Each structure stands twice: as C-alpha cells, then as structure tokens.
Structure to design on (227 residues):
C-alpha cells in the first residue's frame, strides 16, 4: 500500500469550519495538506504545491468550483473530488464533464471521503500503490497481475484494466459509458455492448455464474460487491 505522507492534498473551500475539519482529519491520517479559501488562491496554490488530490467546493465567491476544476485539469495530472451543498444531477454532470473525478454532497461522512481518496489514488496514481489488497483481490500494477482467492487470473490487458477499475470502485454503480471512458478512453469509437462482452468473460474467469460478484444493475450499469 502507499504511504499517506507521500500524498499531497489541496482543499479549496470558502467555509473555514470545513477547511479546519478536513485539514485536521487528513493530517491525522498522515497526508500532506494545504488549504485555500477561494478559487483564485486555490489555483495559485496548486501551481506551486502540485497536489495529487484536490477537494474542491463548487459554490465559492469569485471564480466558482467549476471554473477552478477546468483550470486545474489543464495543469496536469490531478484527481479532483468536488463538494457541493446541492444534490442535483445536472450539477454532478456539469462537474464530471469538466473533468472532476468524483462528487460528494454536503454534509458527508469523513470515512466516505477517505474511501474516495483511496480510490482516486489507486486509480490515478497506481505507481504510488504498487500492490493492493481489496477483499479477495490482490492487484499488482507493476506485474499487471490480479489474484482472486490466491489464484492468478489469466487476463488480457483490457480485462486487467476493466477488472481493476471495477474492483477499486467496488460498491459504486458504474455505467457502461463511464466504463468505456475510463477503461477504453474517450476516443473509443465502438459500441457500449463491448462492455457486456468483457464483463461476461470476467464472470467466467471469476466463476461468477450467479453474478453475485459483478452485479448487473438494470438501467444503470455494473457494481462489484465484495464478500
């Protein structure tokens, strides 16, 4: 697993109480933390601090979180978790379209935020993780190898990336469109049914005949449920 002290987190929020709460909590977990009280200060801080993770509030004076998100994504590799007091689908879609990697509505659980930070690190900075154990899965990104119940799975390169993405995001429903974007890439010109083909193959290799491990959520996508 990664060492938290190697991870730099920038929190951008105009609520001092939120900044203090998150800063203390994440520092106690071992992370390096920097805070900013508005969008402009946050962008300037990001240029010097080069954070791995940015926790970004949407509603701020000056430039809002959406504009900050767009600017940060143009700077390079950074994982952005957006915070909002709203829970509207349109707001989430707008943030994700601009490049946000995750979305949480206030109020939120600190433990859930930690879990989402862990997922972002595993997904976007695998070189900092190396090997990780998630339930019955052991993922070795250096060897591009996944073990399930101590058994090495025989996977193609795409099957490896797909299964890793599903497992790292276990418990979260992932749509076919999202899976295509994250595994195949935005420029993939194929059809969404390619996801079904690969899911079927993974279920066979995992001996998941009853679809209890990789569940189909009708009308929404797929979700990995760990035992």
């Amino acid at each position: 697993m990664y060492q938290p002290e190697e991870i730099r987190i920038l929190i951008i929020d105009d609520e001092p109480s939120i900044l203090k709460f998150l800063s203390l909590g994440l520092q106690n977990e071992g992370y390096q933390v920097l805070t900013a009280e508005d969008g402009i200060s946050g962008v300037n801080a990001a240029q010097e601090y080069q954070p791995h993770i940015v926790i970004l509030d949407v509603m701020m004076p000056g430039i809002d979180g959406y504009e900050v998100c767009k600017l940060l994504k143009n700077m390079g590799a950074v994982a952005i978790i957006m915070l909002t007091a709203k829970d509207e689908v349109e707001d989430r879609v707008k943030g994700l379209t601009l490049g946000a990697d995750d979305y949480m509505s206030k109020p939120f659980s600190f433990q859930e935020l930690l879990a989402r930070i862990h997922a972002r690190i595993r997904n976007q900075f695998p070189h900092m993780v190396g090997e990780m154990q998630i339930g019955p899965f052991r993922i070795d990104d250096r060897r591009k190898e996944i073990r399930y119940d101590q058994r090495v799975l025989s996977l193609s390169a795409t099957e490896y990336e797909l299964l890793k993405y599903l497992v790292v995001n276990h418990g979260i429903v992932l749509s076919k469109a999202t899976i295509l974007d994250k595994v195949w890439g935005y420029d993939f010109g194929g059809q969404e049914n390619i996801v079904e083909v690969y899911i079927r193959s993974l279920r066979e290799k995992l001996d998941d005949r009853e679809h209890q491990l990789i569940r189909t959520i009708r009308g929404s996508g797929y979700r990995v449920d760990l035992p």
